[in-house]
Amino acid sequence: MTASVGDPRRITLALAGDTMLGRLVGDRLRSRAGVELFAPEVVEILRGADLVVLNLECCISDRGDPWPDPRKPFFFRAPPAAADALAALGVDCVTLANNHSLDFGATALLDTVEHLRRVAVEPVGAGPDVAAARRPAVLEANGLRLAVLGLTDHPAAYAGARDAPGVAYAELDGRIPPWVGDAIGAVEADAVLVTPHWGPNMSPAPLPRIRTAAAALRAAGATLVAGHSAHVFHGVEDAILYDLGDFVDDYRVDPVLRNDLGLVFLVTLTASCAERVEAIPIVLEHCYTRLADGRDARWIAGRFRGACRELGTDVVEERGRLVVVPRGGTV
């Protein structure tokens, strides 16, 4: 990774969490314009950023058979129109390194890559073989090159191989595999975003092994770490967004953890650091996402402040946005 001290180049990076465009969301896509999954204000925020990255929690295909695991409860497959919906939203890159990219087998995964590239959305974290799955994408905006590396710690059965499609699997038991550090160190870019799919569903806070792995990713050279998998947002510390939560879906709502109340993050990045993190409260209605207000916005703000406080980070509110204020240093 290359970086220049005092380099004035900076970008605004928009980050959104698990984006599931199958099942009932897919039915909506088949009957309406894709942008109608999101309120105009949400679209405006993402399209106003220099780059947009999110986790695509499904494959995009009309083909394939369900993964042959009798214990697997959910299979997510979106129609080809999902790719157009992502492009209309201004998405530049999605990570496919998760536990749903191979829900309908290798054929559907390869279709997903083709549909995304058709609309100029760059996929990372999965591909036709393990080398492609592990290869970062390099995005550019305002003269700043951002490498994006996607990886997942589950399921091992979805891992790509030398001659088989799959995901960039990485066992994260508090350490990171050598290939991850090598991939970060080898990129030719000004900044590096690592976006891991890690940890169990509905976990209210990052597990100790996740925090240790996150610190290892930062030590290996990641400028920013932005994780997902829990379906609820976590706190922020030291340029680590442990979990981005959910962005759009048709999931059942947990009455305590409220996975229907979330955040979209805007991160100001330079070649040397993440200068600023803003979090914008959102509400996930059934197959539709809008900005939060009133009681919902207050609940999100309170939970986010508490989650950050546990990590030694403060949060202030500025014009309805939650701004991370690290204690004693940069984000």
Question: What is the molecular shape?
Answer: globular
> How many beta-strand segments?
20
Helix content estimate: 10-25%
The residue-averaged pLDDT reads 94
- Rg for CA atoms: 18 Å
Low-confidence stretches: 1-6
Query: Termini separation (Å)?
Result: 19 Å
**Which percent range describes the beta-strand content?**
25-35%
Q: Structural class per helix/strand content?
A: alpha/beta
Largest sheet: 10 strands, mixed
Number of helices: 8
Q: What is the oligomer described by this structure?
A: single chain
Name the helix and strand elements from N-terminus to C-terminus, one letter apiece: EHHEEEHEHEEHEEEHEHEEEEEEEHEE
Structural overview:
The protein contains eight helices and 20 strands. The chain is α/β, with parallel strands linked by helices and 331 residues long. Strands 1, 2, 5, 6, 15, 16, 17, 18, 19 and 20 form a ten-stranded mixed beta sheet that branches. Strands 8-9-11-12-14-13 form a six-stranded mixed beta sheet, with helices on one face. A hairpin with a 2-residue loop joins strand 13 and strand 14.
Task: Give me a quick take on this structure.
With 331 residues, the protein is α/β, with parallel strands linked by helices. It is built from eight helices and 20 strands. The chain has helices spanning 23-31, 40-47, 81-88, 105-118, 130-134, 178-186, 208-219, 294-309, and strands at residues 10-19, 51-56, 59-60, 77-78, 93-95, 122-124, 126-127, 137-141, 144-152, 166-167, 191-197, 224-226, 236-237, 240-241, 246-248, 261-270, 274-285, 288-291, 313-318, 321-326.
